[in-house]
Amino acid sequence: MNKTLFLLLSLSLLWGCMDDPFENHSLQLEAEAGVTEAWLSLHVEGLKNDAVYTLQRNGKTIFNSRLQTADTVVYDSLLTPATGYRYRFYARENGEDSPAAHAALTTMDTTSHDFTWQSYEFGGVNGSSAFYDVAIIDENDIWAVGEIHTEDTDRWNADSTVWLQPYNAAHWDGQKWELKRILFEFEGQKFYGQINSIFAFDKNDIWFGMGSVIHWDGEKYQSIKIPDQIFPSLANKIWGTSSSDLYVVGNGGLIAHYDGTSWSKIESGTELDLLDIWGTDSDNIWVCGYTEPIATVILNYDGKEWQTYHYLPFNEYIEFNKNQISGPVRSIWTNRKNQLWLANYYGLYRANKSNNKSFKRYKPLIKAWNGGTTFNIRGNDINDIMFVSDEDSFWHFNGKTFKNYPVMGNVDNLILAMAEMENGFIFVGFNFNQEAVIYMCIR
Predict the structure, then answer these.
(1) How would DSSP label each residue in 320-351?
(2) What local confidence, expressed as pLDDT, does residue 350 receive?
(3) In 268-300, which positions are buried (b, 16+ CB within 10 angstroms) versus exposed (e)?
(4) What gap in Å lies between CA 346 and CA 327, rounded to an integer?
């Protein structure tokens, strides 16, 4: 046999005996679209510490690094709305490339800033009126709750046998608002107390929060007492995935959970007042709150345990350009596991999952912002978000740009809560004429 042929045969046999560098190694790539951004979830089976993992968008490398964990989220930004993109994820080691994983997405389009506005006032006599929360079943079925004093309340009836108590709710049927009294009954005592919070799953499954809760099942209102040893507080906010997976938050760090049968206390790890709760499912729940002049806190539940996501004493002021949040967090909203929005004393913040402990303050993107306090934030999706500030009033984010509605601004109004529906938003609160107010913002 000639030497050249022998050498080639030997090299071929040697190469055939070498292990495949990517044997027992596989890649998965999942893409989630925003409007001008995307989240790419990278998963590696048989992670190789010496390999370099690369993610490309339309042939351009946007991530190129060794990986320490099997799961990584890459945040891709500066994309164009309503545009298609293709992603390729592969590994390289010793000059060899692994089989690649592929994904495609089309970014979301922006939404319209055009809304029609209506306002309603209630009360103004016999006491201070206010709405504290609102829930939307659909555009023809909306509830606002609070305490409303009118000419028909706070007096005896015609024959002086019944004291007419304030209203504690209002219902919208698509045509008009109707004031209502919802009764709470406990240990034989009946009263119409101020309702602080509301959460609705559908028209026959609505929860009203006071010191305890009231449940509407489509036929009757049922008073459900939360044991004092579990929740000795007013129900500041209610949220859940169903009536057998319901959370109530209150002052002093209190969180109570209802499984459809009984209540249990959630150890929050804080004694600060908890003011808002929102989530995407039972494995992604967020809570925020503060107590002046102590600190502000953000809590997260991942389906296994509650953790403090953010805690900052008020005396530890952080400059805005540090990409960290400073001051009281009043409201929180999310509709996905990759992004979190916060309404804060100094403006609007957002956090992306690829950098869990960093918040982006959106003030630089809002040219007309004058530093007003943001009180509430809710959205239909990340391209249709509304938030409220005390001085600039109502703002809408359509996924790319912000618009302010100064014509609706009124320094005599204070918006305490809001809710979203497919074609708009509802805001509730009070004004300094002692009236409860509702704004309806419809496309």
Answers:
(1) GGGT---S-EEEEEEEETTEEEEEETTEEEEE
(2) 86
(3) bebebbbbbbbbeeeebbbbbbbbeeebbbbbb
(4) 7
As given in the structure block, the two tokens for residue 101 are 């994983």
**Amino acid occupying residue 251:** N
* Confidence at residue 225, expressed as pLDDT on a 0 to 100 scale: 92
Q: Residue 22 corresponds to which tokens in the numbers above?
A: 């990517």
Task: For the chain, list residues with pLDDT below 50.
Answer: 3-17, 320-321, 364
Cα separation, 324 vs 24, in Å, equals 41
Contacts of 321 (CB under 8 A, 6+ apart): none
Question: For position 8, what pLDDT does the model report?
Answer: 42
How far, rounded to the nearest angstrom, does the alpha carbon of residue 344 sit from its chain's CA centroid?
Answer: 13
State how far the Cα of 427 lies from the Cα of 131, in Å rounded to an integer. 9
Residue with the two structure tokens 């240990």: 187
What is residue 321's predicted lDDT score, i.e. its pLDDT? 45
pLDDT digits (tens, 9 = 90+) for 284-314: 999 999 998 888 999 999 999 999 988 888 7
pLDDT for position 408: 58
Q: Which residues lie across from 287 on neighbouring strands?
A: 277, 299
Across the beta sheet with 424-431, the strand order is 116-123, 435-442, 424-431, 413-421
b/e sequence 2-27, b meaning 16+ C-beta within 10 Å: eeeeeeeeeeeeeeeeeeebbeebeb
| Whole-number pLDDT of residue 364 | 45
Catalogue all structural domains in the chain, each as residue range(s) with its CATH number: 25-106 (2.60.40.10), 116-442 (2.130.10.10)
Question: Within 10 Å of residue 122's Cβ, how many Cβ atoms?
Answer: 21
